[in-house]
Amino acid sequence: MSVAALVPAAGSGTRLGKGPKAFVTVGGKTLLARAVEALRGHVDEVVVATPDGSDAPRGARVIRGGGTRQETVERLLRATNADFVLIHDAARPFLPSRVVHDVLAGARVQGAATVALPVADTLVRGADNAWGELVSRAGLWAVQTPQAFRRTLILEAHEAARREDFEATDDASLVARLDRPVRLVEGDARLFKVTTPSDLALAEALAVAWDA
Ligand code: C5P
């Protein structure tokens, strides 16, 4: 059973304000290079999507991304024939091996699996900085990547979403909306997504321990 890692890295990084986010460096390496390095040893091939289809990191094939994350992932899905795909955001550069193993094992059993973390904070719905309704955190998970799928299943889910004009921020939710099971696999706090300047400061600090 062949496995391809697909890495959407075509975002513009607007909230970070440092150009295309995947090419921002932490601890002297780009976020994309870190993600590819963590994936390479676990899969048969790595395909990345960058804004202009150039700048492939070592050990990866590169294609041009789309206007949204969802379009980028659909392009990546069409760029491989692997039986299983592991989709991982370049913006999550610290990827432990244990997580890759667990999420792939989940997909082999159920067809679809995602890494997620049980929510630890108190949750409230707010408007205009006013405390509204308390939301119970019982049973709530925060969804991360990597996510792993049988390729034909996730392609079917993407095609359905495009036909029905449904846009999501991840891929597992496209499978779930077809009423197909998605396995939740315990994630890791180090898999946080680098989105804001303060995330970047956290990533710089973590890189020191990660690279030691
Ligand atoms: O913007 P956000 O942080 O949610 O992006 C998540 C991931 O999707 C990032 O790795 C980003 O590079 C990627 N992306 C993409 N193509 C887009 C938009 C985002 O590959 N058009």
UniProtKB/TrEMBL annotation:
<feature type="site" description="Transition state stabilizer">
    <location>
        <position position="21"/>
    </location>
</feature>
<feature type="site" description="Positions MEP for the nucleophilic attack">
    <location>
        <position position="193"/>
    </location>
</feature>
<keyword id="KW-0808">Transferase</keyword>
<feature type="site" description="Positions MEP for the nucleophilic attack">
    <location>
        <position position="137"/>
    </location>
</feature>
<dbReference type="InterPro" id="IPR001228">
    <property type="entry name" value="IspD"/>
</dbReference>
<dbReference type="GO" id="GO:0019288">
    <property type="term" value="P:isopentenyl diphosphate biosynthetic process, methylerythritol 4-phosphate pathway"/>
</dbReference>
<feature type="site" description="Transition state stabilizer">
    <location>
        <position position="15"/>
    </location>
</feature>
<dbReference type="Pfam" id="PF01128">
    <property type="entry name" value="IspD"/>
</dbReference>
<comment type="similarity">
    <text>Belongs to the IspD/TarI cytidylyltransferase family. IspD subfamily.</text>
</comment>
<dbReference type="InterPro" id="IPR050088">
    <property type="entry name" value="IspD/TarI_cytidylyltransf_bact"/>
</dbReference>
<dbReference type="InterPro" id="IPR029044">
    <property type="entry name" value="Nucleotide-diphossugar_trans"/>
</dbReference>
<comment type="function">
    <text>Catalyzes the formation of 4-diphosphocytidyl-2-C-methyl-D-erythritol from CTP and 2-C-methyl-D-erythritol 4-phosphate (MEP).</text>
</comment>
<keyword id="KW-0414">Isoprene biosynthesis</keyword>
<comment type="pathway">
    <text>Isoprenoid biosynthesis; isopentenyl diphosphate biosynthesis via DXP pathway; isopentenyl diphosphate from 1-deoxy-D-xylulose 5-phosphate: step 2/6.</text>
</comment>
<dbReference type="GO" id="GO:0050518">
    <property type="term" value="F:2-C-methyl-D-erythritol 4-phosphate cytidylyltransferase activity"/>
</dbReference>
<dbReference type="InterPro" id="IPR034683">
    <property type="entry name" value="IspD/TarI"/>
</dbReference>
<protein>
    <recommendedName>
        <fullName>2-C-methyl-D-erythritol 4-phosphate cytidylyltransferase</fullName>
        <ecNumber>2.7.7.60</ecNumber>
    </recommendedName>
</protein>
<keyword id="KW-0548">Nucleotidyltransferase</keyword>
<dbReference type="InterPro" id="IPR018294">
    <property type="entry name" value="ISPD_synthase_CS"/>
</dbReference>
